[in-house]
# Entry
Amino acid sequence: MSDPHTVTTPLEAKSPFELRVNLGKDVPETDVRSALATGDMGFLHSFTTGATVDGPGVRVVAWTTGCNWRCLYCHNPDTWTMTNGLPVSVGRAADELRKYQQGLKIMGGGFTLSGGEPLMQHRFAAKLFAAAKEMKIHTALDTNGYYGDTLSDAELELIDLVLLDIKAWNPQRHKHLTGTDNAPTLAFARRLAARRRPVWLRFVLVPGVSDDFDDIAHIAAFAAKLGNVERADVLPFHQMGKYKWKQLAIPYSLAETDPPDQSVVERAIGVFRSAGVKAF
Ligand code: SF4
# Structure
């Protein structure tokens, strides 16, 4: 395999909504397996800069590829397939981050690893977080939590903030929405609480799919009990990723679904606040 340092495709993208496919398709299967095992190389959709919603301050975000979930509302289905991403050595990814080291310090921002599901590449994630901490950069992991147990307790300490997506409380609803069980996510949430690691909970509000207020109340009560959830963000469903489903020819069941009314978003925020969780 060629040295990933020599790959010339730019890592930086204007936004994660840029459609990227097949960037790693020529990487042999054995190299993919060894990359996953060692974390010396990872697969990234892109780096983006300037985000203000993926953690405190201004964030540099690395978007990984690879996700084993199939959320009905996913706005980046091109990140499901790991080899759609660019093969990047951990050194190259760290070099990219180093470019922003001073700026992030001045602006009080940090680095967020998002995806896809970053913990599909947990060795790479751990190495990249270690590199960021060496640069004294604030770190955040945006995850569905399914693979939380792939990180050791020591590795959790490299992550200053976990942005944990809880997509539904009712197991059947969760399965319908994501294709998977939510028990591992809830177990990870409890482990983070036991270790007092800061969490921002993220909940995507989708009309007709995740807007059951009894379900939301269960999530809010769970979050309140954990004691380490600093805030909950209610994220209204949007259609910015719709074109990706079309271009990738993946059947999209939410093609006709509108974003929720502001009043419904506010009601969901109110459910979290009533449970004692700061919510936005
Ligand atoms: S977990 Fe995230 S990346 Fe994976 S399918 Fe769901 S929304 Fe998409």
